[in-house]
């Protein structure tokens, strides 16, 4: 049935053909189940191990590697020489892919295990009336069908959406904060709600699945229907997955073009004598070179390094209470531009706390004055102080026992109360037992400690109720006049115990009012009690109320209830001479208001669900990082705006028009206006889960990357739709299953920490990609040029694998441990369309150093072959044209000697030195050690087909590598000041320029001369004597013999 809140109970019973006294028959249950299905949301089944393994190979880059391994394996089968070494290449590639898959599967399994540990079971049982059962029977909640008659009582979780048909208690209170975000429990009733467009918060006759009964008992009819929104929501691929796919596609195209080009260019060499004159053998030889080129172009270690980096990020985030369910979503956090956050429990503590209160002091102008207090503490922990309002800034606390009115106020708070706080030994926190506002009073009584109870040595559990027990020991609660919607108050009739005999029986009265009615506060919480008050308490005396005093009290409560504070106010009073119990008709709740008269007002307390202390700074961090924060709550607009001002979402006096909307106001806008509202809004109040999905759609249409929080069953579609769905650790299992991340501590600041971690992970990924690509570009350029020019192959596939995996792979993996850049949260969110490898990132790594070192070895090094251009381009004719290759050993063309090549992408080494990441230093040391091993251990250099380097060759490697630091620092300087920002012409800027120029001068004076013959360095005669002497001394210290000429070599 549509809109059951707008139907009468009789209409619902007729529609489902059910008798509310005996329930449905078994036949009706079966028919209803066939029509509506089981009372459960379709849950995502856990993935099997084989599915997780296959998912790790569902990546284009991995598929390219797999293809390369297969081709290498096929070629190895036809290899006649060195058959063992031929299989090294495919074996190593497969080993990499298996290791990559293992890391991915391990991390996802661990994340699921952590989330399972956080999940609480959904309600499993329900109390139902069925014709086939005697009385009220317990059945599994999933067996409920629409039309079932269900009973609920205090402590029960609501097993399905239900319409109330009868309330047995005076009042029925439901804690539905998990659904609507309302901090206080909601009073329900059976009356029809005629508004067809009513939001969930206004459906006061409906109980929603997953909420809790705070007090009362009722009978309901099930009206819920199976939701399929979550299943119909498609999961989007993350920006990282999209970019890796694009990178893989680009790489595959480039590899294909280059490989075909190399093979085609050398068609004329297929029949060269070096291949035995066989065209087929020549074709296979150059096909092997093409495969080597493919191996060189593919950064084999990249998938494993990315997976490892993401896994490391999830570990760090888990330590900060953020549990990530899927690895790629970690990086997505880094480009988050909008965070849509719930209010209750995320931005606030979801622990109602008394923030202010006032009592009456000495008379001023014939009227009592107000004595106001501020109370510290923002959780259910019974720790805090009472400060006089004027002295809060001075840090002066007062003893509540010094104020007689505070003693009486504490007594009312302890006696007009059915709630308590309990210490959770596992979580090591205090939790409420009962209704939120009553729990706030319980905690206030403990903070006041009006009888100065000695609490030293008490256990945490005893500390939660020590002062309350003292007060409750002085009075005996005879009966309670329960709270009702009409009179908005509750009271208890108490008689003194033997410990307190100087007074007679009293009634303690507590009156409350909803904050949204504060506009009519003249008739709300205050007026509800003021109309029945005759006096106010001043110390041990009482003073009659008059119109002027009533106006002052009303204004003060309105001040508390509106504006920045927007506190929920409770007026506390006593009836010193109550009716005799024998004269009260307690079975008729409509007459309770007659017994709550002649009240003496003792004081008023104001409470709120306080913001978390760290949230304000976190929102400021988001603003600095270019991230917009939107509060989305089911609570009322005034309360939400007040919290928004406290946490810095709005400034103190900022006009919220156009920035704050209720769900109804948002629905009344046209689609174009709704889209425009989502561009600038910072608050949506009184919203339903469906609004969340719509808001996400509009934000995504604007190109925003959205993180959405949620904890209820109905939040699942929005969590699925958002790029990052964030479930609360205290939320429902369905919400957790639909999310990418779970907050174990339900804290907004944890989201900001996760965003920072996501940015750091992306920054680290760019660093190890630039590190890997720099080597791969050098390899590709070297192999391509040698193949295109007919020069013998420089590097064979197994050597390329070693360089890509060990020499590069270990340090690249260690880069995943890099700390975040110092300005990581001062940058605007990166665009999801930003290329993984930008033009600027590509610019510094064109392989010039690799090509230059190869040219140096072949043409200039004294122990090298000393070749000229003809030798290099006609090397295959070495054996058949010995006259043109005098004193040249032809084997040199088949002897592939190896060739050689920052902590932050743009931060200088002076700001972030390498030892900030000790793992990077260790990885470089390990990589170099392994490199030495394969160079100088005979069996290994046979497998890798390499020769050890002599000292002069190592010196060449160091000299070629040295300028990399200066070049990198220069490029970082350019990137920081021109590519990513605008350089400031201040002293610091000039100093950095000077340091870089000095580095270049030193490099040129100590290194460049090595490439230039000594004759060029002769000192000109016109050089001044002083400069000439300095020059000669410099040459004596730094002179390096120039390259030996070809003639001298032959001699």
CATH topology name of the domain at 353-608:
Calcium-transporting ATPase, cytoplasmic domain N
Helix content: 40-55%
* Shape verdict: elongated
CATH class of the domain at 353-608: Alpha Beta
Distance between the termini: 104 Å
Using only C-alpha atoms, the radius of gyration works out to 39 Å
- Provide mean pLDDT, rounded: 76
- Largest beta sheet, briefly? 10 strands, mixed
Secondary-structure arrangement, i.e. CATH architecture of the domain at 353-608: 3-Layer(aba) Sandwich
Question: Stretches where pLDDT falls below 50 for ≥5 residues?
Answer: 118-123, 226-234, 514-526, 846-851, 895-912, 1011-1024, 1037-1051
Strand content: 5-15%
Assembly status: single chain
Q: Which secondary-structure class do the elements indicate?
A: alpha+beta
- What is the H level of CATH, i.e. the homologous superfamily of the domain at 353-608? Calcium-transporting ATPase, cytoplasmic domain N
Output the number of helix runs: 40
Question: How many DSSP-defined strands?
Answer: 29
Secondary structure: elements and pairs:
Elements: H1 9-16, H2 26-36, H3 49-56, H4 60-77, H5 83-86, H6 88-118, E1 125-129, E2 136-140, E3 149-153, E4 162-167, E5 172-175, H7 177-180, E6 186-188, E7 206-207, E8 212-215, E9 217-222, H8 229-232, H9 239-265, H10 279-297, H11 302-319, E10 322-324, H12 328-332, E11 338-341, H13 343-347, E12 353-364, E13 367-375, E14 386-388, H14 404-415, E15 420-424, E16 429-433, H15 436-448, H16 460-463, H17 466-472, E17 475-481, E18 489-496, E19 506-512, H18 525-530, E20 533-538, E21 541-544, H19 547-561, E22 568-575, H20 592-595, E23 599-608, H21 615-624, E24 628-632, H22 637-646, E25 660-662, H23 663-667, H24 671-680, E26 683-685, H25 689-701, E27 706-710, H26 716-721, E28 724-728, H27 733-738, E29 741-743, H28 748-788, H29 797-807, H30 809-814, H31 839-842, H32 848-859, H33 869-873, H34 918-936, H35 938-943, H36 951-961, H37 963-979, H38 987-1006, H39 1025-1038, H40 1046-1050
Parallel strand pairs: 11-24, 11-27, 20-23, 24-26, 25-26, 27-28, 28-29
Antiparallel strand pairs: 1-2, 1-3, 3-9, 4-7, 4-9, 5-6, 5-8, 10-29, 12-13, 12-23, 13-14, 15-16, 17-18, 18-19, 19-22, 20-21, 22-23
Helix pairs in contact: 3-6, 4-6, 4-10, 6-11, 9-10, 10-28, 10-29, 11-28, 14-15, 14-17, 28-32, 37-38
